[in-house]
Fold:
Amino acid sequence: MAIREIRVFGDPVLRTVCDPVTTIDDGVRAHVQDLLDTVDMEGRAGLASTQIGHTLRAFSLNIDGEISYILNPEIIALEGEPVLTGEGCLSVPDLWFEVPRYPRATVRGIDLDGEPVEISGEGLMAQALQHECDHLDGKLYLSRLDRETRGEAMRQIRSSSWF
Ligand code: NI
Structure:
């Protein structure tokens, strides 16, 4: 369908709690295609609906060369101890901060046929699953930074050319 423009920090849609997908219609299918098309670029690991201006519970992933998506994802397992991990977000361009993330995560949801799907993984996949699920609850990774780091992040955001 289309590569959509990425909404950036300050856009209220990024703070919106997304609605579950209840009816899988052409609109939902088109939106998923936009998620898949827009995440399919070098340097993009995941993309949530809000980042392209929608508020459906859906995200796409681009991990190890594989593009995927899930609707109505819920985290069903987080394993190991949280580890500080360097992280960025397409909606907070050019900035990277260390966020505590579980090393292994599993998400359950449905696909476009309404069939149950699970996505699970370690490392970057685990990190992306946690990051994208947060987006669907209207949260950016900045909210997971400690107070001092968040202050520094806000200073850097305010002096960013894109803000
Ligand atoms: Ni993000």
